[in-house]
Specification:
two-stranded antiparallel sheet, mainly alpha, 12 helices, about 50% helix, about 325 residues, two-stranded antiparallel ribbon, hpI Integrase, Chain A, 6 strands
Length: about 325
């Protein structure tokens, strides 16, 4: 469970625990083994029929989290279960859920990311613009960017002067993203221009500076940066679906549009889906350079095509 999702998971399990029973108690007050498969089905539908209408996604989350929690409790606290029920089935497995159309997560385009980033710089929030760019270009998860996993010591360091090191805390992987080709061609000139505007307040690139006279410097939380910085700025720019998470999804979308192979994409995104891939660190670095070259070429080709089309559109 990541730091970003932990509060949401906690709220979800509280939603289930606080449901009232027929005798006036809470579901959370019942013995674990008293929840039968039929009871789990009924609880699912009770959550589904929310006070303001159906909430299928919330109901699905309740089932998923309760199912996992049951497994953890059963393994760590077997004494909670009565004798003779050592092999009791998890009542949350197989809950019949209604089918729903899953919403596609929004993704920000390159143009939107840099429109937002430069607007953030102009507003005096360069670190917020950098966070958006890091999520998009180097595919870092927002919670890792805000937690300080992207550091100045990993940007054009003495050991890797032509790269930026991105740490993916969720997968415990590090990706060294090349910033320029062997002939000196810069792969991310605009991204580096944004980084150049960020004040170096500490080791992490993205830090929050308090302007209350205390001089305090700290990391951002996802809720605070969204409320104080991202939301006001996106409303001003007219970008209703813009979030830091959408920036990362936009970068991942660009990888697909560039037609990278799965191996090349993983070399950039830090996703580890096979044991064989994780064993070849050097091969990953080579793929990262090849993948970055291909992505850079795709961007130049797209820009060239847009320039050719623009005059025709004006006529």
């Amino acid at each position: 469970m990541s730091e970003r999702t932990a509060p949401d998971h906690e709220n979800t399990i509280h939603l289930l625990n606080d449901l009232p029973t027929k005798d006036g108690r809470r579901v959370g007050d019942l013995a674990v083994e008293s929840i039968s498969p039929r009871a789990a089905d009924k609880l699912y539908f009770r959550v589904l029929e929310g006070p303001r209408g159906k909430r299928p996604r919330q109901a699905e989350k309740v089932v998923a989290i309760a199912r996992h929690a049951w497994k953890v409790v059963r393994r760590l606290y077997p004494e909670v279960f009565s004798a003779g029920k050592d092999k009791a089935e998890n009542p949350w497995v197989g809950v019949a859920k209604i089918k729903r159309k899953h919403a596609i997560k929004p993704h920000a385009t390159r143009e939107e990311v840099y429109e937002f980033a430069w607007a953030a710089v102009e507003a005096g929030w360069a670190e917020v613009g950098a966070a958006a760019v890091i999520c998009f270009e180097w595919l870092q998860r927002p919670e890792n960017v805000l937690a300080g996993y992207v550091s100045w010591t990993g940007y054009r360091s003495e050991k890797a002067p032509n790269a930026i090191r991105i740490i993916h805390h969720k997968t415990s992987r590090e990706v060294l993203h090349p910033l320029q080709d062997t002939d000196g061609t810069l792969f991310y000139p605009e991204a580096e221009a944004i980084l150049a505007k960020v004040p170096r307040l500490g080791v992490p690139v993205v830090l929050r500076q308090y302007y209350d006279g205390s001089g305090k410097i700290d990391v951002w939380t996802a809720m605070r940066i969204n409320k104080d910085r991202v939301r006001p700025l996106r409303e001003k720019l007219g970008l209703p679906l813009f979030t830091l998470d959408a920036c990362r999804h936009g970068g991942m979308t660009e990888l697909e549009e560039a037609e990278l192979t799965e191996g090349q994409g993983r070399a950039l995104s830090g996703h580890a889906t096979s044991a064989a891939y994780r064993r070849y660190a050097k091969a990953t670095e080579l793929r990262a350079l090849g993948a970055t070259r291909k992505r850079h070429a795709h961007r130049l080709m797209t820009a060239s095509m847009e320039e050719k089309v623009a005059p025709k559109a004006e006529r």
